[in-house]
Write a structure and sequence with these properties.
Helix 2 packs across helix 3 and helix 2 runs parallel beside helix 7. With 241 residues, this protein is an alpha/beta fold. Helix content is 33%, strand content 27%. The strands form two sheets. Strands 6, 7, 8, 9, 10, 11, 12 and 13 form an eight-stranded parallel β-sheet that branches. Strand 7, helix 3 and strand 8 form a beta-alpha-beta unit. The model has no long low-confidence stretch (mean pLDDT 94).
């Protein structure tokens, strides 16, 4: 059954899809009055709905019974150095599938791409749409927030609660499994994943000073996107399963 996003403020006994969702429903999927769809609000609510009326830019609904999904626990925050190309979109998609609560793109010393303030906002808007599409595809009822890209140093200067882990190639890093086992009571876990060239020595030291614990992801050197997937899947499996 097709899934559509319906903002929390629009949830009433009769509701209307936003213009983009209405257009997709009417012009792409060619659904018509009487068809049933699923709607979700990105905050854990979902419901079956019956289409009442359809036009090119507006689809009205008769809402059915509402169900609620608990938020993924613990909340996993992915602070990901932005790789080149569209790889970040793949990472966001997989992060949604693994129940990540927030994605913070980082611009680090070894990050190839850079953004000015306006570009950062536009990228965040684009990536938020990627997250939304992933939610619709995989059945995730909690929409993670994708923030604008932020400088790695600025990110580390912001206080953050819960367990904090940084994937690191530096000597002395502890096995990720060990750090996860020591985080079983945390309600929030932040994991930092660096670019292909890893975090710089200075960035790693700043992270350690901010309370992040260095984790090794094994003996092999993983690509940035592989490291992100490995870390997120490990966290979700060991802390939620």
């Amino acid at each position: 059954m097709a899934r559509f996003f319906l903002p929390p403020a629009a949830w009433q006994s009769t509701a209307q899809l936003e213009e983009d969702e209405s257009r997709h429903c009417a012009q792409v999927l060619r659904l018509s009055a009487g068809d049933e769809i699923t709607v979700f609000d990105g905050c854990g609510r979902s419901a079956r709905a019956s289409i009442r009326q359809v036009s090119k830019h507006a689809v009205s609904l008769e809402m059915g019974e509402v169900t609620r999904t608990l938020a993924p626990s613990p909340a996993i925050i992915l602070a990901q150095a932005v790789p080149k190309g569209k790889t970040i979109e793949w990472i966001i998609e997989k992060a949604v599938e693994l129940g990540v609560s927030q994605i913070i793109p980082l611009v680090t010393r070894h990050t190839i791409v850079k953004y000015d303030a306006q570009e950062a906002i536009k990228k965040a808007e684009k990536w938020q749409k990627v997250a939304l599409e992933a939610c619709k595809q995989c059945g995730q009822n909690w929409l993670p927030q994708v923030l604008p890209p932020i400088d790695g140093r600025t990110f580390l200067e912001s206080p953050r609660e819960g367990a904090k882990i940084i994937a690191s190639l530096a000597p002395g890093a502890l096995p990720l499994k060990q750090l996860i086992a020591e985080s079983t009571t945390a309600t929030q876990v932040t994991v930092m994943i660096g670019p292909e060239g890893d975090f710089s020595t200075e960035e790693t030291q700043l992270a350690l000073h901010a309370g992040y614990r260095p984790a090794t992801l094994g003996s092999l050197v993983l690509r940035s996107e592989t490291a992100a997937l490995y870390a997120m899947a490990s966290l979700r499996c060991q802390l939620s399963c």
